[in-house]
Amino acid sequence: MDQTAAEWFARRTSSWQDWPDTVTTDVRISVVLPALDEEPTVGAIVRAVAGIKAVHEVVVIDSGSTDGTAEAARDAGATVHHRDDVLPEVGSRPGKGEVLWKALAVTSGDIIVYVDADLTDFRPHFVTGLLGPLLSDPTVSLVKAFYDRPLLDLSAAGGGRVTELAARPLLNAFFPELAGVVQPLAGEYAARRDLLEELPFAAGYGVEAALLIDTVRRRGLDAVAQVDLGQRTHGHQDTAALGRMAATILHTIASRVDPDRRLARTLTQFHREGSAVVPFETEILVRDRPPIKSVTGYRSESR
Predict the structure, then answer these.
(1) Exposed (0-12), middle (13-18) or buried (19+): which is 55, by Cβ within 10 Å?
(2) For each successive 10 residues of the chain (303 residues), what is the average pLDDT?
(3) Could you say which of 5, 66, 74, 222 has the lowest number of CB atoms within 10 Å?
(4) What is 3-236's CATH number, 3.30.470.20, 3.90.550.10, 3.90.1150.10, 3.30.450.40?
(5) pTM for the whole structure
(6) Alpha-carbon distance 255 to 273, whole Å?
(7) CB 33 within 8 A of CB 248
(8) Residue 156 has what pLDDT?
(9) Domain extents in the chain
(10) Which DSSP string do the residues of the chain spell out, in sequence order?
């Protein structure tokens, strides 16, 4: 590990047990759940988050669900927005980065906590642990989670397959100062609104890597901290879907290394139809959304 990354790891790594789970604060906290067809899990997460004393609002951004995700979230007490209804004048795009970006326009918090909506074992310290470094240290702007995933064949605190086979090697090669980040693609993280307003949001699953890189470029490595949340269980995607995720992340990191380099915008994969192997192509989401504070209508719609 690069010495800068090692020093950062020692300074900026903590455990959820270091932070009280009964914290209250005058700082306004919004918890955002991006959701796509998460009816089985989203309601329980919303109810648990709503019971956290520090949280002022729980917002679910529906990314085009075809099941009862929106209804389950609303019945559990969340404010629910469909991505197409937020800042409609800028249009709507598919992917996770879009809903995280649009969430800024319909939340009021000074700190935004993002939580994936497919967790099957959500516990309140997933939020309070992430809040700890932000509420105790004004120099911290972004807090990333890491955790064990007991259903995967992984070493303790290891990242998922896309992290270990794609994101980590790329980040270590091009951004070695980030080598101390245990799970750069973790879907649970918290950040100050004033930071998120200044940053572009990458498309799809590239959003987490981009926010990490861009935060360090704008505010320095010590603006980032990470918290061990213990154990986390969630749904899993098949290998082909992970390949598409990895392609998006590769494009996102490459765009931060060399913005002028043009990469192919499709990924060719293969599946079997009877006795034949058939290629199929998927378009890779590559366009960033601009810093939201530059978008006309943002202030009139938010807060």
Answers:
(1) buried
(2) 90 95 86 97 97 96 96 98 97 96 97 96 95 96 90 55 94 97 96 98 96 98 97 76 94 96 94 94 93 88 53
(3) 66
(4) 3.90.550.10
(5) 0.93
(6) 35
(7) no
(8) 46
(9) 3-236, 241-283
(10) --HHHHHHHHHHEEEGGGS-TT---SS-EEEEEEESS-HHHHHHHHHHHHT-TT--EEEEEESS-SSSHHHHHHHTT-EEEEGGGSSGGG----SHHHHHHHHGGG---SEEEE--TTBSS--THHHHHHHHHHHH-TT--EEEEEEE-TTSS--TT---HHIIIIIHHHHHHH-GGGTT-S-TT-S-EEEEHHHHTTS-B-SGGGHHHHHHHHHHHHH-GGGEEEEEEEE--B----HHHHHHHHHHHHHHHHHHH-TT----SEEEEEEEETTEEEEEEEEPP-PPBPPGGGSTTHHHH--
Tokens of 184: 């750069």
Structure tokens at 296: 């006309």
The tokens 């929106």 sit on which residue? 70
Which residue type is seen at 88? Answer: P
As given in the structure block, the two tokens for residue 251 are: 């494009």
